[in-house]
Amino acid sequence: MARHIPLKHQxxxxxxxxxxxxxxxxxxxxxxxxxxxxxxxIQSKDADLETYGIGAEELESVLKKIFGDKVxxxxxxxxxxxxxxxxxxxxxxxxxxxxxKTGPGHKGFEVIGDPELDxxxxxxxxxxxxxxxxxxxxxxxxFDPFHGQKDLEEKRLRVVDPSTFVDDPLRVYRGIxxxxxxxxxxxxxxxxxxxxxxxxxxxxxxxxxxxxxxWKKLLLKSPQPSAGFELMRKLGIIRKYFPxxxxxxxxxxxVEWHPEGDVWIHTMMVVxxxxxxxxxxxHTDEERLQVMLGALCHDLGKPSTTAPGLKDGVxxxxxxxxxxxxxxxxxxFLARFAFGENISHAxxxxxxxxxxxxxxxxxxVNKKELTEETYxxxxxxxxxxxEPLPWRVYLAVSESDHLGRxxxxxxxxxxxxxxxxAKTVEKILNAAEHKPLLYGRDLEAxxxxxxxxxxxxxxxxxxxxxxxxxxxxxxxxAHITRFTFTSNPFExx
Length: 493
Prior knowledge:
A hairpin with a 2-residue loop joins strand 4 (80-86) and strand 5 (89-94). The protein contains 25 helices and 13 strands. Helix 14 crosses helix 21 (391-403). With 493 residues, the protein is an alpha+beta fold. It is globular. It folds into three domains: 12-152, 2-Layer Sandwich (Beta Polymerase, domain 2); 259-434, no CATH class; 440-480, no CATH class.
């Protein structure tokens, strides 16, 4: 009995475009992730259509007759074309390809387009059985030669063909992010194959750009990224390629503050909280990646700083200075990726500053070391230190750190320090009195010419304001007029 995939969840633009192509070629099938997502009830933003019985040049001509100038050539010699359909939806059309490994690296392949390739052999070149399914775009009839639908139903990730799987080591990372995204268990033989590939160094040849792409999918698309990191740990990837993360394993924590276990366990809990919070509060991939990488890297300074120490006369496990100590390992860890400057900056800032909201609240509420005014001044200074990182992103990492701890029946449910911090920031940003006390025109009226000195004087006034020494415009002007500007007052003598 023929099986069919449900198409009701899919965008009609994708289906209509695929069906138009079908009318003009001998045979066409939707393949890969689109079919998998349709079975899972997930809407896809793109679809891959594989055509048979038509060469690359003829296929290009057909596509241009249907879609005109929309057709983008991705690989003319291989017969790969992209048709943008608007609002981020794309149809990729290609003829089947034969691939064989000819050398190291992701470019070490011989790729030959073969429009006469048997559909079963075309499916065999794919990585996992759940991605080796195809379907008729008109009827939805499923073609599943390697039983991918059954594997999906049984939550199993299985390699299609071990002899071709090893041709591209990136498939190990793909398997990890697929397992984490779809709550799958890697089938034992497939797991052993991936473990062997890691052990013999197959992943050494992967570029940082390709690795980064798979990590992005793990961090952005998995509701529980810790599952992917645990797989990397068990497969030996963490030990072999990411020593900064491996050092977290077995680094102890004080039971009173971290009853959940070592720093690795805590970090995994924090990463999962960050995934939940980033989905809840942020809409751009960049901001969500800033939250996720900040959460992953926030305690990288603990392995080098953790030691027994006295606190209030009691011996405790302490990690004094782990915030500053986390900067160097965060930088070395991120150097293996291509996340970009903004995301790397976010992770470094969060490693260095993630404890501050809680510390400031304790100084205000518990220790009475701060007043509301000096607390607000401290928050203003912190906002300047984290620039240009959005403060809400920073606070999301701090919240993730606070909530990602404890035993199942005693996990924190709220983050009061974060609530206080957010309310204070809103007051600072909205209050007119928190605009700069002095502007360039004020200093020009005192005879100070525009230039570096003027900028340093304004910055000095704001620093003294943050310290609570200067509070009003009048006090700022009085402070400035104390200088005699026959020379630079900041110049070392």
